[in-house]
Amino acid sequence: MRAEDHNRNAPFPTSFGGAGATPFAARVRIVGGGLTGILAAFQAHHLGARNIELFERLDQLGGVAQPHSQDGREMRDGCHYFGPQGDPIRELLEEHGARFQDFDNRFGAVSQSLDNPAIAQDFGGPALAGSNIELAPLAGRTLGDRLACYDDELRAPLERYVRWHVGCEPSELHADAAHPLAINRVYPKGASLDALWQAKRSNPLADDLFGIPRGLWGYTTNAKASLPVGGFTALFEQCRAALAAIGVRVHDRKLANPKTLLAEDAPGDTLVWAASPIPLFKAMGLPVPRAPAPKFATYTFEVNWKGPTPVYFHNFTAEGACFRAYIYESAGSTLLTAECVTKCDENELVRDIYRLLDHFEGALTIGALQFKSIKPRWLYHSVETIDSLEQLRRALKARMGDRFVAGAWETYAKGAKFVEVEADLRRALEITLALEAI
Length: 438
Fold this sequence. Notes:
The chain is of the alpha/beta class. It has helices spanning 35-46, 88-95, 143-147, 152-166, 193-202, 204-209, 214-217, 231-245, 258-263, 278-283, 346-357, 383-400, 414-437, and strands at 24-31, 49-55, 68-70, 73-75, 100-104, 106-111, 118-121, 127-128, 187-188, 224-228, 249-251, 270-273, 295-306, 311-315, 322-330, 333-340, 363-376, 404-406.
């Protein structure tokens, strides 16, 4: 997330939030102890709330970013990181004692095929051989409609990738699924850079659908990123201590019952649902959407890597099983986590990782498998899911008004989640302030 995307220190409404503000007596209840829930608790306190409870179904905070710990090393199941100095999320966490270390943000991508690849350095999306950058109008809201904007030479490999990665047709997914799939921008390697640059400057649709590797056009916004000093386990332990220090009551191993929480709602209370919204559908008497939520497998190996760390590589070839390889250091070890579209044979996976990284700077030797995990990921929303979430929001708004804060369920990027939740939380606490002033 870019620092200029959000200004957390924008002026508060008169007598609302900030130092010296009158504390709110009404409750703020937060369901979900992942990063979104933790940040919501810090935000609520910053805005004046002092009666804050956080409910987490596990015995530790962190959600999907909390790694499995093994011999002091973090077995991360994906590529998680924060922005550089000035990133609003990082700033809020630093205000509560967290420490971060910047690094050069390096990544690359392999497209077309593993044996005859199209390589992109410092570009996280597909780099395809096409040269035609003429776009058809966007005709609908599905991912299939989005991909249909491209020339056939670009569209076909993208559709193949979606089927391989998610196991469904692009027409079943909402267009916003392009972001978690990392295909929101495509680099057509055969196109003139000048023509591509001019198209991006003059056509908003072209700017949205096409990308250029940063080294080819001087783009530096994502050149730096950061990781928490001591790792994610240390970060979330620090967050727990900071929450306790400001009076937030954390309820571990507490599976929040939505019917109970809604029934206990009192005037002025705010309910932030930062966890999966699926339990809310039944509580509100609504059908649960059928979401394309494949179970992805992650395999973590100890490796010898002569190259920069951390670094990650995307595989857009729709070959093998690994769609992303992430190399990082933890507790003196260099580890590689392979995120895979399905459970796979370990030896075949190792072979495919070598093929994936063969064309990038660095030398890799893969050692013993350290950890593996298979988990569902609720990332790729169907059109049905988006419509169902909108219906759920309307039902909850009818019941609680703006005092119900959704955890930015549809949004993928954590920076965008942060902005959306804070805006909704401000609105909710303004209502609390008004009620307490009566």
